[in-house]
């Protein structure tokens, strides 16, 4: 009965060619999303390379839950809730480091890096207390793919690989661009706050319609070629992998150019070490193809955006506030390309970035726009007459189509209708 | 540099330069501001803390001279939406200290507080600044400007004015 009611609520709000503005600014919807999305599905937390050594830790989050990602002494990665089990004090206050144990500053309980309660101050006061009952809360399911660590608060559900589905291949494609087959997250994060709902960011990441306009200033003042990729004439594709994962596939344009590293706006001569490493790793022909195709532009629902050269992690703060954590992707063992990856990332993203400051102002204005008009409904029907299936059976459209938004909302609706 | 060593006429001159730089930035006089830079100038606003190595970790701004030009040109393109409508800024520069006087180049420290009025909100920013200035044809040019934000460790909103 209840289920029926919930289903009709979202059926009223989410349509195949647009959604209600209230979905972006109703605090009750946000609370429901926390339960049915953030605390249910697989959520990206961090990268294995952020905790390379035993007892390394880094502060992360899932939805509003503060999480400590640690590497225990068994080498396994733990996702622990960063809340002391005594009275709820915040346990770890350092963004990252290496610690065998964490001591709560309030009454000095001590926890191991795998979450076990090790000690309680003045132990005589605890009779018949089983320390195992007072271990730190932990994310019940932890899994990683290609070094990307995800957590799910649902005890049961689809496996991470099932959740990623076709989007797995985009991670493979990213890793193939690294001569060692591995990427690293070592450059720290830019933390960029916007007064807008998190879904505005998710939808924008694979919105190929806006770059020609929002980022026009960048084409005017630099030798960026991205305007060729996102226009009416572009042969790039938008793709819906299902489960909310969407991409802009730029390979058709890069293959037309047929130049190695053109995807990165550079060439073989400028990154000779990297090119040699790629040839040694894959052989000339395969290396050439990988270096023509480049890295993916994919939004892995709900919070990991792989944007060719950088990673974005989307953190919802409230219905109207979101933080984007951005870092440069680094190819393990390839210093010459890594330097360029860092420089390009710093120029483009973060609060003063040539690209992201302009995206962010659109998020904020859009959020306001969606809020103020009663009964407002977006239009996401662009290109619905030219949706088609690719050879793998995924829905694709032109790069400037609203197809990714439609895919995101379709999945969103299924999650919001499914939960209790 | 001990108090007895301070060259007060140099200090005065340096202060006047810092105030000029601040006023050009406040008034969005991008080209005039750009002209203050030396050809090898580096403009640095670290993320997270002033202790990071900008060659290895993310900075909010880490511009060499050509990227400073791109930044200025973007502001002047008419399509830097993050800075439209024009952001109103007034800053106070204070606590000016000569840190090093190496003849040709001078290193100077200061604090700055910014009142920034953007499209919706009014914001306060604060920073520790360090400039390295070089005399070129009798005028100071900026060789290095480091702006370490007081809240660098936090998530920050758009920074779309000249800080
Ligand atoms: S709240 Fe942590 S020890 Fe009391
Ligand atoms: Fe954008």
Notable traits:
heterodimer, A: 420 residues, alpha+beta, Rieske Iron-sulfur Protein, Naphthalene 1,2-dioxygenase Alpha Subunit, Chain A, domain 1, 2 domains, 9-stranded antiparallel sheet, 4-stranded antiparallel sheet, 15 helices, 33% helix, 24% strand, B: 163 residues, Nuclear Transport Factor 2, Chain: A, 6-stranded mixed sheet, 22% helix, globular, binds FE2/S2 (inorganic) cluster, binds fe (ii) ion
Describe the structure in brief.
The complex is a heterodimer of chains A (420) and B (163). Chain A is an alpha+beta fold and 420 residues long.
How are the elements arranged and paired?
The complex is a heterodimer of chains A (420) and B (163).
Chain A: H1 2-13, E1 14-15, E2 18-19, H2 22-25, H3 27-38, E3 43-47, E4 56-62, E5 65-71, E6 77-81, E7 96-98, E8 101-103, E9 110-112, E10 117-119, E11 141-145, E12 148-152, H4 160-164, H5 168-176, E13 183-184, E14 190-194, H6 198-205, H7 211-214, H8 216-221, H9 226-229, E15 237-242, E16 245-249, H10 251-257, H11 272-282, H12 284-293, E17 297-300, E18 304-307, E19 310-318, E20 321-328, E21 330-331, H13 335-348, H14 356-372, E22 388-389, E23 395-398, H15 403-418
Antiparallel strand pairs in A: 1-2, 3-12, 4-5, 4-7, 5-6, 8-9, 9-10, 11-12, 13-21, 14-20, 15-16, 15-23, 16-17, 17-18, 18-19, 19-20, 22-23
Chain B: H1 8-26, H2 30-34, E1 37-46, E2 59-63, H3 65-76, E3 88-102, E4 105-117, E5 122-136, E6 139-149
Parallel strand pairs in B: 1-6
Antiparallel strand pairs in B: 1-2, 3-4, 4-5, 5-6
The complex binds FE2/S2 (inorganic) cluster and fe (ii) ion.
